[in-house]
Amino acid sequence: MKIKITGILAVLLFMQACSTPQPTPPPQPTDTPPSPPTVIVVVTSTPAESPTPEAPPQKGTIIYDNGEDILSIDPNTGDADVLLSRAELETSLAKDRSADSYTYGAKQPLKISLSPDRSQALVTICADIDARYRCLFSDYVYSLDTKTVAELPIPPNAYGVYWQWSPDGSKLAGAAWSYDRALYYLTSFFAVNSDGTNLTPLGAVINDRWQLTWNPNGAVIHPLNFVANFQSIFIDRSPSQDIPLTGLDVNDGIQCLSFSPDGTKAVFTVRGSILEDREWVYSANSDFSDVTQITEYDIDPRHLCTVNWSPDQRFVHVRYEYDTRAETGEEKSGTEPRRDKLINLETNSLMDTPRDLIACGWTPDNNLVYETKNKDGGIQILTPNNIPIPLPDGLQPAVLHCPVIWASE
Length: 409
Hints:
- The structure is a single chain.
- The radius of gyration is 40 Å and the shape is globular.
- It has helices at 2-19, 86-90; strands at 61-65, 69-73, 80-85, 111-114, 120-129, 135-143, 149-151, 160-165, 171-180, 183-193, 200-204, 212-214, 220-223, 231-234, 241-242, 253-259, 265-271, 278-285, 292-298, 303-309, 315-322, 341-344, 349-351, 357-362, 368-372, 379-382, 388-389, 405-407.
- By secondary structure, it is mainly beta.
């Protein structure tokens, strides 16, 4: 029995050995080359650089005062021609004594105001000083074409006149002023021909209101008086005419006035006798009918203003500057930034202006010219909606401050 079991076990062990799987032989090399490694390429798109906007061609001519010369500048190239040289003028006029005066106490650049057609220049100098070392001013009209000089007469007992050109440049009108011992005061309005002839008194200055605006017809001035005394004063000394301004208080003072380029409209500002830090802006027909309030805002009462129309007559820029007449003996300058206003006449609404720029005036294409406030200066051009207009390369280094005017021709 024991032998039989042993045999069975031997058979089972033999069968198990036969059923054990044999190891798989290693793969044999073949002639097929191995596959190259997979390379993943990541493609990125680099955005194309936006091209610098090309400066559009600019129209007109820039008249610029660089402190030494009055220049005529091509706005597309920056090329400049000298219209008037102060150094050349000084050889033709009396010696300027501003450096010796109590009025200034330092040499001043000759004050120059070009006629509307830019053929003549009004030149004012401190020609002499009185016993108190105050300037006695002399005024000359210089012809840019003939290079001749005509001295304007000084009204009796006057120290100077705030002359202003007529629209056609044939005449000037202004308020004369003087001193009573230490007291500055205004005397009368005068007119004179640009060749120095026919000095004509036009009536006393009332309420110390010395500014005026010429009517577009060139025969009338409008002293910027209180509403109660607002008038047309005729250069030929015809009787003056009162101008009623419907809806305004008689104690309102007219601050600045300007007629539209086509002479059909007027825009003016007024301040009340009580609220001197509030300004109201009005429009009217050129005969001052249909007076309509446009807007109002707060203003520093030390500011003087001018109204500049856009060439297309859709906007006005009201420019404010401190009264810095040294001859008055009063300290009226300040440190606050200018608060110029831009007004849309189609909607009678104020528009935003950049706080870091100083508005200068208009280009012939109805864009505003601004001066940069940084120490290096420079100008910028913006649409009334504050969209920048690229400047030609040659213009930026040529004009660092507000131009005298950007003329259309």
